[in-house]
Specification:
Length: 552
């Protein structure tokens, strides 16, 4: 990366700098080293004052002098390391890089103690300069530090997406599920595109009342690009500016500053994702053609408010930003969970059979499911929960930040520590059979904890209805404490109607003549199953006319 950045500076400029100021280079190096050592000494002195009892930090891999655990975070398969560290060191794993502390929480009990019972101290957001400032995600409340702006944004979002409000969206989600069935029926081999289109088009309708009829709709394409770059940049150790925030002030032409040129380019896309659909709603409202959606409803409320112009503009910005955050948070998570579901279905035909038997007992193969059927379909409910548990969309998500010094179980937790709940990473070695025994080597992370789940790496919805396991809330799949995903109730409703609808008419199987795929997943901030093939079978002659009737 550094070499690429150096190469990007015009050779003439590099030559002139080196020729004109050769005597300054050693002085600059000495100055940098002096500043670094002074900072390190001051941090060490402050640490002693903050921890007068000299309590140890939680256990973790041995840090190196000065750089700490930099190599642990930047070299090798990071996600396998997280699982291995959880097994080796226990419920809390501590690392540090250049004086920045990181803490990984590997059990539901400790996560509840810290994120829930001590939420006032664990609800801040660890700001990553690359994503938050340079790439322009500072408007998104999921990335904001704890404060009034974050509270106002989350309050606005929660009001429109709390459980009692989700029923207003049922028609949108049902129509979207029917359209997904129609697309799968027509071109089953393009399932990946169908799922991507479904997630993007549904949330676009909910937030902006925009119908995305084209697969390459510009709104959706822009959002996909912005989210892809954010997921790339947010991986631990990806950019040094996240360890040395002062680097954000380095000019773009400076050697090693290629990250700033990337960020400037990506920032434009991020703002397009936020602004363009919002402006489309405002235009529709001005034309008198807008229908009810998240943005039009809240903007309509503001038109009748008695706020001053300044206060009103602040609220307009919050509406715009909250809608953009809702879209960004929903698309990728829905797509990943549905991909994982499809993989689980073809690996576990017994799960499909049980789900279809339950659906047939209620629907009698005469109609598609509705939300009114949900109380009568507990196994479908269990499939939603197990899909979220089995394959985590965001194994670590975005880190919280500890606001004040704290202690836990005899360990010292320093203020400013970036703290993450390790919900569960899925790896190629995960067995696909529901009958395989536990792997003793890696079953310690929160949603794959062998202490709470029998055979935790198996996809088994029955654990939520049959086994009477002391499982605990599945909500941790959406985050922790006050930072838990505010859109989780919408995600639950969307996943339920899609799962129930698909299994009522289709059976998914391994293609004839092919071997069953492995449960292999990408490793990054957002995790997806690696590409796999499957066959789609209509469950009977009644399927096609039933689906076609929904499109008239």
């Amino acid at each position: 990366m550094v070499a690429e950045n150096l190469a990007s500076i015009p050779e003439l400029v590099q030559h002139k700098l080196a020729f004109a100021f050769p005597h300054l280079l050693p002085l600059a190096a000495i100055a940098i080293i002096t500043v670094f050592l002074s900072s390190w000494i001051n941090r060490a002195r402050a640490a002693r004052l903050a921890n007068p009892d000299n309590l140890p930090y939680p256990p973790g891999p041995q840090p190196l002098p000065l750089i700490g655990n930099l190599l642990d975070l930047c070299v090798g398969d990071l996600w396998s390391k997280f699982d291995r560290w959880a097994e080796e060191y226990g419920d809390l794993v501590h690392l540090s890089v250049f004086g920045q502390h990181f803490l990984f929480v590997n059990s539901y009990g400790v996560a509840s103690e810290l994120f829930d019972k001590k939420s006032s101290n664990y609800s801040d957001r660890h700001v990553m300069p690359m994503v938050y400032e340079l790439m322009g995600w500072d408007w998104a409340f999921g990335h904001m530090p704890y404060g009034d702006r974050w509270k106002a944004s989350r309050k606005m979002f929660h009001k429109e997406f709390q459980p009692s409000a989700i029923a207003r969206q049922h028609d949108v989600h049902t129509r979207a599920a029917h359209r997904l069935l129609s697309h799968i029926l027509a071109k089953p081999e393009e399932y990946a595109d169908h799922l991507k289109y479904h997630g993007g088009s549904t949330i676009m309708k909910v937030m902006y009342d925009i119908d995305t009829e084209l697969r390459q709709d510009p709104f959706v394409v822009t959002a996909e690009e912005a989210l892809e770059k954010m997921a790339f940049a947010a991986q631990p150790g990806r950019f040094m500016v996240d360890f040395f925030p002062v680097l954000r002030y380095v000019p773009e032409w400076f050697p090693g500053a290629g990250f700033k040129r990337l960020a400037r380019k990506w920032k434009k896309t991020v703002h397009q994702m936020r602004d363009e659909p919002f402006e489309a709603v405002l235009q529709a409202m001005a034309n008198g053609t807008a229908s009810t959606c998240f943005v039009s409803k809240l903007m309509g409320d503001l038109e009748h408010s008695k706020l001053s112009e300044g206060a009103r503009q602040k609220q307009v910005n919050i509406v715009r930003d909250t809608a953009g955050m809702g879209y960004a948070a929903s698309v990728e998570s829905t797509l990943s969970t549905l991909h994982s579901l499809m993989l689980a279905l073809i690996l576990h035909p017994d799960v499909q059979k049980r789900a279809q038997a339950e659906l047939d007992s209620v629907l009698h193969r005469e109609r598609l499911p509705t939300y009114a059927d949900r109380p009568s379909l507990p196994y479908i409910d269990a499939m939603v929960k197990e899909s979220l548990r089995w394959a985590q969309v965001a194994p670590l998500a975005l880190p919280h930040k500890v606001m004040n010094h704290d202690t836990h179980d005899g360990y010292f937790i320093k203020a400013g520590t970036a703290i993450m709940g390790n919900s569960g990473c899925v790896h190629p070695e995960i067995p696909s059979s529901s009958h395989v025994v536990d792997s003793p080597a890696r079953s310690r992370v929160i949603l794959h904890d062998k202490r709470k789940y029998k055979n935790p790496y198996a996809y088994n919805p029955g654990r939520f209805v049959d086994d009477n396991e002391d499982i605990g809330p599945i909500d941790v799949a959406f985050g922790y404490g006050r930072r838990i995903c505010a859109g989780r109730h919408m995600a639950d409703a969307q996943l339920w109607i899609v799962i129930a609808s698909m299994l009522s008419v289709f059976t998914f199987a391994v293609p004839k003549g092919e071997k069953a795929p492995k449960a292999e997943f990408t490793k990054g901030m957002m995790s997806h199953p690696k590409p796999f093939n499957f066959a789609v079978e209509e469950r009977g002659p009644w399927v096609r006319p039933m689906i076609e009737d929904t499109q008239h």
